[in-house]
Amino acid sequence: MARRFIGASGRGAALGIALAATLLAGCAALGSRVVPAGQAEFELSGRIAVRYDHEASSGNLAWRHAARADEMLITSPLGQGIARIVRSGDAVTLTTSDDRRYRASDAEALTEKVLGFRVPLRGLADWVRGRPEPGNAAQTRYDADGRLVELEQSGWRIEYLAYAADGKLPSRLKLTYPGLELLLAINEWRAAP
Questions:
Q1: How far apart are CA 188 and CA 170, in angstroms?
Q2: Which helix (H) or strand (E) holds 84?
Q3: What domains can you pick out in the chain, each with its CATH number?
Q4: Taking every pair of C-alpha atoms in the chain, what is the biggest distance, in angstroms?
Q5: Which of 100, 150, 158, 172 is deepest in the core (most CB within 10 A)?
């Protein structure tokens, strides 16, 4: 079971290098179209940095989201596939670089078990668009322009560090959960509402 992410220090660094050496050839791009063209609510690409369990790592992220499906690809800084997370309805599958597939109904528990850290896929689809997840209690703080600055929801604290040049969508977010910090820098948005 892969318990480390990319480029971690110490023992994790050796594992990161080994993972990079055995990457899935088909994991380099979002090509399987789990979310068919024209049905995506958004696609984004950017960078992700993770701090957890005294480890730190970074990589790239490509994500296609629709109401009933997601496809997220986490790659090394050089663009080689590390993990592919696919949600179809209520089922989540995570495929690692050694072509092992893990399934669950909860992306957070699955990513924590396989990668060693949580990826809050359900709430994240709203949080990256600068809004709380509907139907779930939240504490919010907005700036003078009405943009979300801070959000606490589902045990996560999300800080909005920067917005895109047009001021509509977040470009840098910091997500914290006990023992975990995710930094997300979004470079490109496509088809975002």
A1: 11
A2: strand 81-88
A3: 11-190 (2.50.20.10)
A4: 49
A5: 158
pTM flag (> 0.90): no
130: left (phi over 0), alpha (psi -120 to 50) or beta: left
Residues in the chain: 193
From 57, 59, 104, select the one nearest 85 (Cα to Cα).
104
Measure CA 48 to chain center.
7
Token couple for 98: 């050694």
Residue with tokens 């699955």: 110
Q: For residue 11, give the amino acid letter.
A: R
Q: Is 89 exposed, middle or buried (0-12, 13-18, 19+ CB in 10 A)?
A: exposed
Q: In the block, which residue shows the tokens 């910090």?
A: 181
CA–CA dist 53, 77 (Å, integer):
21
From first to last of its 193 residues, what are the pLDDT tens digits of the chain?
Answer: 444 444 444 434 333 333 333 333 333 444 555 676 678 899 999 999 999 888 888 999 999 999 889 999 999 888 778 899 999 988 999 999 889 999 999 899 999 999 888 899 889 999 999 999 999 999 999 999 999 999 999 999 999 999 999 989 999 999 999 999 999 999 999 875 5
Which residues, including other chains, have CB under 8 Å from residue 74's CB and lie 6 or more apart?
Answer: 5, 6, 48, 59, 60, 61, 81, 82, 83, 84, 85
- Strand 55-66 relative to strand 180-190, pairing: unpaired
